User: Fold this.
Amino acid sequence: MKRLAALLLVCAFTAPPPAAAGPVSPRIRVAIARNSPSLKLKTASQIYVQEMRTGQKFMLVQNASYEVRPRSGGIAVAGQELSSPVKLLASAGPERIRLGKHLYKGDIILHANQDGRLDIIEDLSLEDYLYGVLPAEMSPDWPLEALKAQAVASRTYAMRFINPAKPYDVTNGVETQVYNGTSRINPRIIEAVNSTRGEVLKYKGSLVRAYFHAACGGHTASSKAAWGEAVTKPLYGVADPFCKPSRHSRWQYFLSTKELLRFVQAQSSTALKVAGLKIHQKDRSGRALTLRVSTDRGYKTVRASEMRKRFGTFEFRSTFITSIRAVSGGYQISGRGWGHGVGMCQEGAKYMAYKKRSYKRILRHYYPGASITQHD
Ligand SMILES: [Zn+2]
Assistant:
């Protein structure tokens, strides 16, 4: 993890994307940088730093550089020691914040964390957040109905994380949903978010855990098989004929005997030689749960998800293994789909949209039994 001082630039205002009229959107707090030892702050206009606990404001002058540091649980800036967290406020109208190459339009909060470092948090409306998530999670060139289905899934997914008891709700990385500010925004993204404003997926009155993944390869996975979570009807897994034309529907991976031996040894096997690899257990969708490795010390059963993690989720694309062939020096593994397989298959959503299916049909297909409704 990088430990460099972050550079935050408060720059001139650019018009934010137009928000659709409708119910008030909830706020979401996104950690856009974590564990920074200090922060360099450059101001293009006069701004205020406000202690969130007391409401007290301190002015920072225009066109100046400041160093912000965490200090004894609080935050030190321009000779003042403030209690954490603090908010950066523009003195005249809205400002945009630049961090690295990304632009942020929400309020910026600085929080001194438990490790004595700074977390930089953007506080913005959920709808504005989605303008930034959508192009990072799905290509803006894809058909509009697929983008709208993604907007509803991403909105639902994000809402489950909103928790005022925590310093922030979500991170900007793959742990939740990828978010890089709102620089890549375009009219199709705005339309997908605005035309589904406030819509979420619910099942029996609760928000669905609206997972999604790149391609399922013919059948989506249940959240129970993937992670041992209690499963509800929308995440039980469905047959999916739609993603078949996708180039991600099939993959191959060569696993050398050497790598496999190292892997079983890391799983506390005393083996010195491996002699075979087979699928041991499958889930209802056909994905491998466990594999069995024959070794000079007997059989070793390993979890397919562990293997995927070990050999790389970009190379070992799924646990939907269709064949394992012994070849010279190792095993040729063939499989289907890309990703964990739970919830909406994005490639399938794209092909459903090409076939003129609406975003509601797409969502009903991948989250059966869920209703599409306005959030409370
Ligand atoms: Zn699919």
Notes: DSSP finds eight helices and 25 strands in the chain.
